[in-house]
Design goal:
The complex is a heterotrimer of chains A (about 400), B (about 400) and C (about 350).
Chain A: H1 11-27, H2 47-59, H3 78-90, H4 99-102, H5 104-110, H6 113-125, E1 130-133, E2 149-152, E3 158-167, E4 175-181, E5 192-198, E6 204-210, E7 216-227, E8 232-233, H7 239-249, H8 254-270, H9 277-305, H10 311-335, H11 351-361, H12 372-383
Parallel strand pairs in A: 1-4
Antiparallel strand pairs in A: 2-3, 3-7, 4-5, 5-8, 6-7
Chain B: H1 7-23, H2 26-35, H3 41-49, H4 52-56, H5 68-80, H6 86-101, H7 104-115, E1 121-124, E2 140-144, E3 147-155, E4 165-171, E5 182-188, E6 194-200, E7 206-218, E8 222-223, H8 229-240, H9 249-263, H10 276-304, H11 310-335, H12 351-363, H13 370-381
Parallel strand pairs in B: 1-4
Antiparallel strand pairs in B: 2-3, 3-7, 4-5, 5-8, 6-7
Chain C: H1 7-23, H2 39-47, H3 66-78, H4 85-97, H5 103-107, E1 112-114, E2 123-127, E3 135-140, E4 143-148, E5 164-167, E6 172-176, H6 177-216, E7 218-219, E8 222-223, H7 228-256, H8 265-290, H9 303-315, H10 320-332
Parallel strand pairs in C: 1-3
Antiparallel strand pairs in C: 2-5, 3-4, 4-6, 7-8
The chains are: A alpha+beta (about 400), B alpha+beta (about 400), C alpha+beta (about 350).
Chain lengths: ~400, ~400, ~350
């Protein structure tokens, strides 16, 4: 098998992608990349190197390509950002969980001019790092069950108290986008507000916690952290609606598809010419599923380009792509035999070490950004119009 | 711990096989195939003549002689032979209920006819709007002089066309929670107002819709207390003891598929048994069949130890039927276009795949759907909380 | 038929379970990573006579059967006990058959193991327990060889198991020809049977943790274990693990109970038990991990320890797909005709 056809996004995007790929290959080429591994970070790169690549990408116009041009973005349709996410993942470039992807769209949509300047423009330039801190220990799948509070002070500022978990990249972030309860009498989806918090704010504590694959997620604690009134993001009490929009944008699945494509290609290469029937069956099955996944992603991107919010289609794509990604790792590790049980390396390493990494790494896409059970509920409720499961 | 079958069970297995070989001939098998009947009177009466129906009753109820392990053997051999066993299993179950909770008339008039193999009885539980939620039954029984008038409709009343009575679940009280307003009756299929309408199923087997239009029965036809139907239902379930059949389809499929593969060759004249995909499918099926057998044995063992194998019976049924469906799918695929062909003669093994493909869906539905079994296992076996 | 453990068998389950629990409770397991060997646990296993438990009395052992050993191993597996009892017992039983069992291996003062992959050029790759064993039994060029020497260099691995490559220079031949082949096959068969039990234990341990978590964890105002999507999956996992347990025990029992009418039956049951236990242990740990949500992916939660080992304990033998092929060969004989296109 000589490579998979990849994601197809239309002629204009394709020309852009060709340049982008060249940029990525250049940026990650040895020896620039050599010796810059940091397996305690999700990106797998040392922070200095990561910043260097992000900044170069910003300078070259690859960050925030689908954000408004007036705010420093590229002003292109969502399919352009999907192309960037896909290629970044495919090349293992540290351009997925960036300020431009995670935080800038929400700030662009709801922020003040000042917030847009400090975060959106900087994110598009690649000069700022940001994280999102939504999940809490009691608010995972049930994300509206937020307990972190922000109490308004007489001077209009807020004091934040509470604990956020599973925060990606908090240890290197300049800004944190979070959601808290501003109406202490409220429950559920009402009374929530978003904040954009400067990570140098006193009484914001970060604890890095190891995942099963060595890299860390952080717990972010707001211990009576005081922020000014201008830290409020959007309208007070409107947090849930703002957040829902932000989460939806995360689900096209392009990045997961990028990892899946590269991993599957490597597996196909290593098995090229195999006459082992079991291996051939397993690979053919993966390729079939891969084509289905591409179809899902392309549909979501097309709908986004057309200006609609593909709720059920996004959920379908997320389920299909993340489960494919997980399956590739498991099938690959099995085909590689006991060698793939040895020390995990990283994405792109020699195959046994790479797949030892994959087997553990790809557990989390089916859990994060809305566990697949939640996605399936969305598919059933919204996509198929089934009545909700009865609850007492 | 010892997995050796007990000598009595082994010996009984030999007896059952011998009887099947003698009575359930290819001719009878072909007849069942052609007519879609779920019953064979010759076989049923031959088994009754051996005393097997009576022996299947608990000892305390005047039966005995066969423990759960032997009963499991009986149903195992019937299933593996592809012989109809539903009549037998319903008969022993209702006979047990009547021996336990029946009145003097029922024990005098009806029980002996069931035990001797003279008559059959059908189960009237399911209704169009009461399937998994069987306690939602709406067929009404109201006092009518000294007796009762029954109006309503039942579905999947299998074997009603061969039966002398229907063991009928009715609603007698609308003012109490649904489980507390049910009452059981024996309804003669000869009663005025009783009608049945055959339903053809996907597998070719016949079942029925039964209608009750002002059917009058005397109070002596009531089984158990008025509004005590749910207790009777629980007694009936306890007599099934997890050994009433329906858990050997995968094992039978394995036997047939192996026999077929050993005998056949592909288009190039190579033995079917040497096809890699077929070997792989058979190896996986062999594991599933082994596990299904062990789970069935466990349910029988739990019953033999004097415990009620509620969760174990559910586990056995769930695994066996789900495994059967998985295997059927694989083997039909492995067979290629040949797996689509229907054959008139039951001796044509290759047609078994096509039949199984049509039969498999119902196995995870009847006798409690897989979803109901999983609820039971999760909540009673694993102690998880009820959702709603 | 009697499917309940005898009182004696139940006490084996209890004793080994308590022993693992009290020596290396789950929250101390990481102290023994990445090597995957707890000397203090091994010492306690030695103290109760576990290493020679299933060695025939004629060779100085306690003469227990594989079934008793399987029950012990299942109890250890449930707690992910970091001690190579399976490998040691299998090697010791084999050595006893060729009069090569030393007192040190019999009582466990030296750890012994079996190379599961055929050695090539006097080199055995990824030997289970190879990083702690001083005695290695290997099959090399139609000969059964025994190597005494220092443990090999640990190869870091997914399961934190004491894997090591072992050179076989200086190994002595203890059997050759057909005898060597048949003894080696039998030993690997026994390894499959016992590993099946270890995997069953692992699966049950993972299920236990998963059940506890979904019963305690609340989202949407209710325990998440009340959702049918989780209940039904856990019911399926539990039923399959029950089946795997029965099958593993039956396979061990069959090895103890030679049936002249079906001499290959024990081997076949062992292959089935191994494959089914591996699949169900992986499914149990995978689903239990998934139901933890993000916590399942965090290093500090124990469920990920099960997930890693479920794959590692099984795949150290081979790709399971090839084991299915082997099972078919056992049942139907090997394919003799010329290989079909795409096969092989």
């Amino acid at each position: 098998m000589r490579g998979l056809p990849g994601l197809t996004l239309g002629p204009e995007v394709e020309a852009f992608r060709t340049d982008l790929r060249e940029f990525l290959r250049d940026a990650l080429r040895e020896p620039a990349a050599a010796g810059t591994r940091d397996v305690t970070d999700l990106t797998g790169w040392e922070q200095a190197f990561e910043r260097e690549v992000v900044q170069a990408a910003g300078a070259a116009g690859y960050l925030g390509v689908s954000l408004p041009a007036a705010l420093g973005g590229g002003g292109k349709p969502p399919s352009w950002q999907a192309a960037v996410s896909y290629e970044a993942a495919y090349h293992d470039a540290p351009l997925i969980d960036t300020a431009a992807v995670l935080v800038a769209p929400t700030v662009a949509a709801f922020g003040t001019d000042a917030q847009r300047d400090t975060v959106v423009r900087a994110a598009c330039a690649g000069t700022v790092n940001a994280c999102i801190a939504y999940t809490e220990s009691g608010a995972g799948s049930d994300l509206s069950n937020i307990e972190t509070t922000a109490s308004e002070q007489d001077d209009g500022g807020f004091v934040l108290d509470g604990e956020k978990v599973f925060v990606t990249g908090a240890h290197k972030a300049d800004w944190c986008c979070t959601i808290t309860r501003t109406d202490p009498s409220s429950t559920g989806k009402r009374g929530l507000s978003m904040f954009l918090v400067d990570m140098t704010t006193p009484d914001v504590e970060i604890e890095r916690i190891a995942t099963a694959n060595r890299w860390t997620l952080s717990t972010v604690r707001f211990v009576g952290a005081r922020v000014d009134a201008d830290a409020l993001l959007g309208d007070a009490g409107n947090g849930w609606r703002q957040l829902s929009g932000a989460l939806l944008a995360e689900r096209s699945g392009a990045a997961w598809l990028g990892w899946a494509t590269r991993t599957l290609e490597a597996l196909l290469d290593s098995c090229a010419g195999t006459r082992n029937r079991v291996a051939r069956d397993a690979l053919a099955d993966l390729v079939a599923r891969w084509f289905a996944a591409v179809g899902h992603v392309q549909r979501v991107v097309a709908l986004q380009d057309a200006g609609s919010a593909p709720f059920a289609e996004g959920a379908l794509s997320k389920v299909c792509v993340t489960e494919l990604l997980q399956r590739i790792g498991r099938v690959g590790a099995t085909l590689l035999g006991p060698d793939a049980l040895t020390a995990p390396g990283w994405f792109g390493d020699a195959l046994p070490q790479w797949f030892a990494y994959e087997v553990v790494e790809r557990l989390h896409p089916t859990l994060s950004v809305g566990a697949n059970e939640i996605q399936r509920t969305t598919i059933a409720d919204v996509g198929l119009g089934l009545p909700p499961e009865p609850r007492t | 711990m010892d997995f050796t079958p007990s000598p009595t069970a082994e010996q009984f297995g030999d007896e059952v096989r011998a009887l099947l070989a003698r009575v359930y001939t290819d001719e009878r098998r072909q007849h069942a195939h052609d007519t879609g009947t779920m019953h064979d009177w010759e076989l049923h009466r031959a088994m009754a003549d051996q005393g097997w129906i009576r022996q299947a009753l608990p000892e305390a109820l005047g039966g005995g002689g066969r423990g759960p392990e032997e009963l499991a053997v009986l149903f195992r051999e019937l299933e593996l032979a592809g012989a109809p066993y539903d009549g037998m299993s319903i008969c022993t179950m209702v006979a047990s209920v009547l021996a336990h909770a029946g009145n003097e008339m029922q024990q005098r008039e009806i029980l002996p006819k069931l035990l001797s193999g003279e008559s059959l009885i059908a189960l009237g539980y399911s209704e169009p709007d009461a399937g998994s939620d069987v306690a939602a039954a709406r067929t009404r029984a109201v006092r009518d002089g000294d007796g009762w008038q029954i109006d309503g409709q039942k579905i999947f009343t299998s074997l009603a066309e061969e039966s002398e009575w229907v063991f009928l679940l009715t609603r007698t009280n609308l003012d109490v929670p649904k489980h507390r307003g049910l009452t059981f009756f024996l309804v003669p299929t000869s009663a005025p107002g009783f009608e049945l309408q055959p339903i053809r199923t996907l597998s070719g087997k016949r079942t029925n819709m039964t209608f009750y239009d002002g059917v009058h029965v005397g109070d002596e036809w009531r089984v158990g207390e008025v509004d005590g139907g749910w207790q009777v239902m629980l007694v009936a379930l306890s007599f099934e003891r997890g050994v009433a059949g329906g858990v050997r389809d995968a094992e039978r499929l394995l036997a047939v598929a192996e026999a077929h593969a050993r005998a056949g060759v592909d288009d190039d004249g190579r033995p079917l048994l040497e096809q890699p995909t077929r070997r792989d499918a058979l190896a996986r099926l062999a594991i599933d069949a082994e596990v299904a057998d062990l789970l069935a044995s466990r349910a029988a063992w739990v019953a033999a130890s004097g415990r009620l194998p509620g969760v174990e019976g559910a586990a056995s049924k769930l695994f066996a039927t789900e495994a059967f469906q998985r295997s059927v799918n694989r083997l039909v695929d492995v067979a290629g276009p040949a797996g689509l062909v229907q054959a008139h003669a039951v001796s044509d093994l290759s047609a078994f795949y096509e039949y199984c493909y049509r039969f498999a869906p119902v196995t995870t539905i009847y006798g409690g759907t897989s979803e109901i079994q999983r609820n039971l296992i999760a909540q009673r076996g694993l102690g998880l909380p009820r959702g709603s | 038929m009697d499917l309940d453990p005898t009182d004696e068998q139940q006490s084996i389950v209890d004793v080994f379970g308590d022993l693992a629990e009290s020596t290396v409770p789950l929250d101390r397991l990481r102290d023994h990573e990445p090597l995957g060997f707890a000397p203090e646990l091994w010492a306690r296993l030695v103290a109760v006579g576990a290493p020679g438990m299933a060695v025939p009395e004629t060779a100085g052992g306690a003469g227990a059967g594989l079934l008793d050993l399987a029950l012990a191993v299942e109890a250890l597996g449930r707690r992910l006990a970091p001690a190579p009892l399976v490998e040691h017992a299998v090697a010791a039983r084999l050595l006893a058959q060729v009069d090569a069992l030393t007192p040190e291996v019999l009582d466990g003062a030296s750890v012994a193991t079996l190379a599961l992959r055929r050695a090539r050029d006097q080199f055995a790759r990824l030997v289970p327990a190879g990083a702690v064993a001083t005695t290695v039994v290997a099959y090399d060029g139609l000969q059964l060889v025994v190597l005494d020497g220092e443990p090999g260099v640990h190869v870091a691995n997914l399961a934190s198991a004491p894997l090591a490559d072992r050179g076989l220079d200086g190994a002595r031949v203890v059997a050759s020809g057909a005898l060597a082949t048949s003894l080696y096959r039998q030993a690997v068969d026994e390894w499959r049977v016992l590993t099946a039990s270890a995997l069953v234990g692992l699966g049950l341990g993972a299920l236990e943790i998963g059940l506890r978590y979904v019963s305690e964890r609340e989202q949407f105002g209710v325990p998440i274990g009340s959702f049918q999507a989780l209940q039904h999956t856990l019911a399926d996992v539990s039923v399959a693990l029950d089946g795997a347990q029965l099958l593993a025990r039956k396979a061990a029992w069959a090895h103890d109970t030679v049936d002249d009418r079906a001499p290959d039956r024990a081997s076949e049951l062992g292959a089935m038990a191994f494959l089914f236990a591996a699949e169900q242990a992986q499914r149990a740990s995978d689903r239990a991990l998934h139901f933890h949500g993000g916590y399942g992916f965090m290093e500090e939660y124990d469920i990920q320890l099960f997930y890693r080992r479920a794959k590692g304990w099984a795949n150290v033998l081979d790709d399971p797909a090839r084991e299915y092929t082997r099972l078919a060969d056992l049942r139907y004989g090997p394919v003799t005709a010329t290989a079909s296109p795409g096969g092989g």
